[in-house]
Design a protein that fits this description.
The protein is mainly alpha-helical. 62% of the residues lie in helices and 0% in strands. The protein is built from 10 helices and no strands. It has helices at 3-16, 33-36, 40-46, 52-64, 73-78, 85-97, 103-111, 118-135, 140-149, 155-167. Helix 3 packs antiparallel against helix 4 (52-64) and helix 6 packs parallel to helix 8.
């Protein structure tokens, strides 16, 4: 199994599921066993693939196996800046599930509290709370960004930011 074979399988599955109104980026593909049993290295390499569906499939594969993501986490944090909001969202979801987060991960995730996509902002707030809880840290940059998000116009973002601050012991 290599990245190009993975891309071929993912493309074929997207075509098979296509119907009017279908958003293929939202589809969490049930990859065949032959693919899911591929080495983590294949999925790590897929983060750099030009096809957004391949990047999403790789992120979702690691979400099911967060303990295997260690060698790939720098690349995952790089996906926080991907042009596609679904990729940014799934990169955050993987980060919040990751078993050994770092302070850098929390700080970089907190930048997405100012993302143009509100779903990415909401997921960033939740991810910051989960990462900081695991690390037992109260990074000033993360706290400042969460406090700003806690006064955002979007009520769901406010709620998630407030919860993250409570988890960190920083919400009055």
């Amino acid at each position: 199994m290599n990245v190009e074979k993975l891309a071929e399988i993912v493309d074929e599955m997207i075509v098979q599921h296509d119907y009017p109104g279908f958003e293929p980026r939202a589809l969490k593909l049930g990859l065949p066993d032959s693919v899911t049993k591929a080495p983590a290295k294949v999925f790590s390499q897929a983060f750099g693939h030009e096809n957004v569906y391949v990047r999403l499939a790789a992120l979702r594969w690691f979400q099911e196996r967060p303990g295997m993501a260690r060698p790939a986490m720098k690349a995952v944090m790089g996906l926080y800046e991907d042009v596609d909001p679904f990729v940014r969202l799934e990169a955050l979801r993987l980060s919040e599930r990751y078993t050994e987060p770092t302070e850098e991960m929390a700080v970089r995730a907190s930048k997405l509290l100012e993302d143009e996509d509100v779903e990415v902002q909401r997921t960033a707030a939740r991810a910051c709370g989960k990462i900081c809880k695991k690390l037992k840290i109260k990074d000033a940059t993360v706290v400042d960004r969460l406090q700003k998000a806690a006064s955002a116009p979007d009520s769901m973002l406010r709620g998630k930011a407030e919860k993250a601050l409570r988890v960190m012991g920083m919400y009055d």
